[in-house]
Amino acid sequence: MTATVQPTLDGTTPPAPVDYETWLAAVWPHFIAAAASGRTFTCYSIADTNQLPDPPNPRAHWGRLMHQLRDDGYTRPAGWTCSDRPTTRHSGVRTWKGTAAAQREAAA
After folding, report:
1. Which of 35, 76, 77, 105 has the fewest CB atoms within 10 Å, measured from its CB?
2. Distance CA 44, CA 47 (A)
3. In CATH, which of 1.20.1050, 3.40.1350, 1.10.10, 3.30.70 is domain 20-27+34-107?
4. Which contacts (CB < 8 Å, 24+ apart) does range 5-14 have?
5. % of the chain surpassing 90 pLDDT
6. CB contact at 8 A, 81 and 42
């Protein structure tokens, strides 16, 4: 039995759901470039600037991405700031900065 996709009210078909690995492959290069730049950034600033798609589970996967970047040695926590995401009412968010290794990798 095949599942059918319900069209939206305007008649268009919604995009197919994407899994975490597919989403990660699409957004990873943007965060690697941000880490290599040496500037301090928030997760939202990179996502908004590059108009990145939301992951399958936005409440968990954005954080998972940032921790994966840290665990892989590309970023380190840099501090805190007020979020500029419109829906957060300026709550505190972590800022990130690329490691020296990430910057050297970009220069190579």
Report:
1. 77
2. 5
3. 1.10.10
4. none
5. 64
6. yes
